[in-house]
Amino acid sequence: MKKHIVIDARIRRSSTGRPLHELVEHLQKYDHKNRYTILVQPDDGWEMTNPNFTTLPCPFPQFSLNPLNELLFAWQLYRLKPDLIHFGMTQQPLLYFGNIVTFTHDLTMLYHVRKKSTVNGPYWLRITLYKFLLWWSHRKSKKIITFAQKTAEDIAKLHPFTKDKLVVIYEAPGAAIVNAKPAKPKFNFGKYIMYQGTAFPHKNLPRLIEAFDILHKKYPKLNLVLVGKTEKHYEELAELAKKHPSHKNIIFTGFLSDAESKWTFQHAELFVTPTLIEGAGLNPLEAMACGTPVVESGVSVMPEYAGKAAHYFDPYDPEDIAAKISEVLDNKKLRDKLIAAGYKQIKKYSWDKFAKEVLAVYKSLLKE
Predict the structure, then answer these.
(1) How many domains does the chain fold into?
(2) Whole domain around residue 220: which residue ranges?
(3) How far apart are CA 4 and CA 329, in angstroms?
(4) 193 partner at 20 to 30 Å CA-CA among 54, 94, 97, 171?
């Protein structure tokens, strides 16, 4: 019997929404039985390839506690009469109850949000609301899908009642970068190491710059290339970098296309990320797919995703970060070993496998 599955994919165009985007794209290849309604933002022209999949504009903000939005969004969902609904985040209508699957990416908001007032209200209020929404969505969900065993363990420790609800399904590197035809960016990088991603506080980039100060003394011609869309966190980091002795060797590229990112990966001496917490370690996997050795944080989910294909450091210690980078720069045998291990490691992950495993969760709840 055909079931109606609703997927809230309003965040699919953000970095957090990547697993939702890839899920729906790949589900269309594997589920020709059930009917799907994909909720999207009103200006999202996403086209489906499977006739059983249709998009539906959803005009409500992704993050809102406005009572009217709450009521109207819940009412829209009830009118759809889904047999199952999959929310891509823990921010979901408080008054919707049903057969719910939730993606919980990580617990970054609990530990790495800056404690200062913003337009969204003071820190204590935002974090209190977030904790409640996280707890409530986990209470209501029949299954909670997360992307690493480490994250599942952290969630189970925070909310013991989730133990039997948690399912770990691994993400995969971005196909757009991996399959792109490389194109050189309009920069003179010279000899460089690189980071790609956001500059949010938990990415720990100030310590990377401290480590680069140490490296600069040994490798005065080496550059640090930081790839990421220019926004307030990168602007703040650029101002901070000006205070460091290595600042003339730090290059902020802003946004790069997939083709430019691939070229930058391929020509880097190594890829480095000092992150303190992640839901999935994907940028290092993309570097591995491009033949770039990876030197990264040895905490959170990073070792779980990279295995033996990365050289690890203590992200809280700039001297250790610098030492591990130096080891790869100076040791060709180690570098070649990491590259070979990287190519092997990425074969463990695919979005096809991801979609099939999520579909298995759906079927378990639909009793198919």
Answers:
(1) 2
(2) 175-348
(3) 54
(4) 171
Q: Which two tokens stand for residue 326?
A: 């130096």
pLDDT for residue 341 is more than 60: yes
Q: Quick check: 15 and 32 in contact, CB under 8 A?
A: no
Please report, to the nearest 10 degrees, the dihedral formed by the alpha carbons of residues 41, 46, 49, 53 taken in order: 0
Query: Can you tell me the mean pLDDT for 173-189?
Result: 90
How far is Cα 57 from Cα 60, in angstroms, rounded to an integer?
9
pTM: 0.91
What's the CA gap between 40 and 12, in Å, rounded? 8
What are the beta bridge partners of residue 37? 6, 54
Is 279 a residue whose pLDDT tops 80? yes
Query: Based on the domain organization, do 164 and 262 belong to the same domain?
Result: no
Q: What gap in Å lies between CA 308 and CA 318, rounded to an integer? A: 22
Distance between CA 176 and CA 28 in Å, rounded?
Answer: 18
Q: Does residue 190 share a domain with residue 97?
A: no
Amino acid found at 166: L
Same domain, 86 and 160: yes
DSSP state letters, 65-98: --HHHHHHHHHHHHHH--SEEEESSS---TT--S
Mean pLDDT of the region 304-312: 97
Are 359 and 30 in contact by the 8 Å Cβ rule? The answer is yes
Cβ contacts of 191 within 8 Å, gap of 6 or more: 219, 221, 222, 223, 269
Helices (H) and strands (E) in the chain, counts: 14, 13
Instruction: Give 299-357 as a 3 state SS string.
Output: CCCHHHHHHHHEEEECCCCHHHHHHHHHHHHHCHHHHHHHHHHHHHHHHHCCHHHHHHH
Tokens, residue 237: 């980091």
